[in-house]
Amino acid sequence: MLDWLLNKNSGAMSLSSGGYVKRALVLLVTFVLLYQVWIFLHICWWIKFNPHSSAFMEDRLEIIQEKKPDAELKYKWVDYAKISNNLKRAVVASEDAKFLDHEGFDWEGIQKAYEKNLKKGKIVAGGSTISQQLAKNLFLSTKRTPWRKAQEAVITVMLENILSKRRILEIYLNVIEWGNGVFGAEAAARHYYKTSAANLSAVQAAKLAVMIPNPRFYDAHNSTRYLNRRIATIQARMGMADVPR
């Protein structure tokens, strides 16, 4: 009799545990789906309305304010038509030459980056497109996790299917980091050249484009041998870069 009661209680506990696991999974799936809807609605809103900030901007501001509590980001939105075509071409030439042709992912570029990193034994190249970089900057933290890469891919697909290429590039040029606390083309042009984003020359635009992968370093070291060589390379490619009109 005692054995029967123990077996019955054990079975009840197993069923109860199974119920908890099932409910936890349902809650997790519900949360993930609601998060995707939240992202989707934000992107739809940005078809006509401009983002006021991004996840990456908020992360950087928090870090900067740890040392200087009253610090603010240098940031000002500027419309696509008021950004120099030099900068548009330079950024596409430097970051994503196939921007107008792909649907969010440059598979050939990803393969080349993988092979280069494998050869060097460390990460020295990235294959992320402008759309992928924008997805990460707008919504995701700086922590590298498998979940983040998967979510980045989902957001990239949403961006490419909801927004035009022109709008993707416009938002990208307005929210990416260009120095310590410097975000967007207008703030970068003012910070480095005391001019507007509309008036950037070919050389200035090429230099800003080259800074994108490591903007805080180049903010402090703005005349390295590699930087100067890379500026010349991007200038040579700018004439072949296709950008949205």
TrEMBL record:
Pfam families: Transgly
The entry's keywords: Cell inner membrane, Cell membrane, Cell shape, Cell wall biogenesis/degradation, Glycosyltransferase, Membrane, Peptidoglycan synthesis, Transferase, Transmembrane, Transmembrane helix
Biological process (GO), any one: cell wall organization
Keyword Cell inner membrane: yes
One of the record's GO cellular component terms: peptidoglycan-based cell wall
One example GO MF annotation: pentosyltransferase activity
Glycosyl transferase family domain ranges (all copies): 71-238
InterPro entries in the record: Glyco_trans_51 (IPR001264), Lysozyme-like_dom_sf (IPR023346), PBP_transglycosylase (IPR036950), Pep_trsgly (IPR011812)
Protein's name in the database: Monofunctional biosynthetic peptidoglycan transglycosylase
